Amino acid sequence: MPKTHLYPRFAERTLAEALEDSPIVLIHGPRQCGKTTLAQMVCVPEYLRWRGQPLSLATAKPRGYAYLSFDDDVVRAGAEADPMGFVADLPERVILDEVQRVPTLFSALKLEVDRNRVPGRFVLTGSTNVLLVPNLSDSLAGRMETVRLHPLAQCELRVTTAQFPGFLDALFGDGFKTQRVGRLGSQLGERIVTGGYPPALARSAGRRRANWYRDYLDAQVQRDVRDLARIGSLEALPRLLELAAAQTARLLNVSDLAAPFQLSRPTIFHYVKLLEQVFLLERLPPWHHNRLSRLVKTPKLHIGDTGLACTLLGIDAAGLTTDRTLLGQLLETFAFEELRRQASWHEARLAFFHYRDKDKVEVDIVIERGSLAVAGVEVKAGATVTKADFRGLYKLREATGRQFAGGVVLYDGETCTRFGDGLYAVPLRLLWET
After folding, report:
1. Would residue 249 be called left, alpha or beta, if left means φ above 0 and alpha means ψ between -120 and 50 degrees?
2. Which of the following CATH numbers is that of domain 11-149: 1.10.760.10, 3.40.50.300, 3.90.226.10, 3.40.50.2300?
3. Exposure on the CB side of residue 352, measured as CA atoms within 13 A
4. pLDDT digit string (tens) for 120-157?
5. How is the chain split into domains, by residue range?
6. Given the DSSP bridges, would you call strands 144-148 and 415-418 parallel, antiparallel or unpaired?
7. Vertex 296, ends 386 and 335: CA angle to 5°?
8. Spatial CB neighbours of 338, under 8 Å, sequence gap ≥ 6
């Protein structure tokens, strides 16, 4: 069998640590983002030796996990027929892939863990956010740790020089050093269009990669969304996702999304939540502070990966250079998703918001580190930065006072420099090269 390429995954360390003290560990994220590969990297190192892959520190420890997938019709039917008996017959340590396809299994896992609470006994992967399903998440409360896996971050794509990026540490720490770097230029559009799904990256750019994204979307709708809800208008979902891609990085407007359909606003909003549950969309909540008034309370909408968005919109890197409005939207989503991916393995617990008031003063991304610190990130597609670009960050700094950790305007320029106390203009490439 030929060797297949493996990208470094910085969530590997998080997973290895969770296995040391949690009886159940759930790796969840969108289909094809690498959940099964990550589980095998950490739990079944012999799988990687068989494929001739190098082993990292986390995989050096033999763990001896068996592997079962609920995409296998026979395995799924057996688990559905007798969940208790299925769990009782499982090996001592096991990876259960696509566990959302057998929701009746969660109660059986709870009882088994309560009977024999061994750390790292069950590794689950799921392409649906089971934490949004109350009965499922409640049944495993206190027994399960969750590892969120996203499509590949830009820093993970730097295969030969992959290292933990320091952007978030600099944002909440000592700030950014004055320096000059090369502009991304045309590379920026290519990165946005490519996205972060490993199987898409394995295909040549253009039609072959776009075909993968289209097939991927069809599979998501026909499998995971259908499993979640018996809805009568599955054919509306691809078109709805296309409209959402055009609305990415904007305030969620359900009326605009519902306009092309003969469906009610509540129905469209329900569909948006379903697409969010399978990690194709994300609502970014508004940030609030008691020292600010007249705040907009509507969430922003972001698509989960810009490669998927560009395929849905039928645009390539050359097209992005001529459509500056769409470039600005997709670049904001690109930066937001990169930050979310980096935050998923960061040691601090980080929460994401956006800020906008009724005077249209805004900060694209507001990040809270617990209740201790707040930082802001504004994203700009241009190659220059002026004082006016910090308008929202000035207001954020004034409102949060001593809690303000720092503010950044990300732009496609060459110079990283200070713009006042705690404020910086930072070239985009330093988002993953800091």
Report:
1. left
2. 3.40.50.300
3. 22
4. 999 999 998 876 665 666 677 788 999 999 999 999 99
5. 11-149, 155-433
6. unpaired
7. 50
8. 153, 154, 431, 432
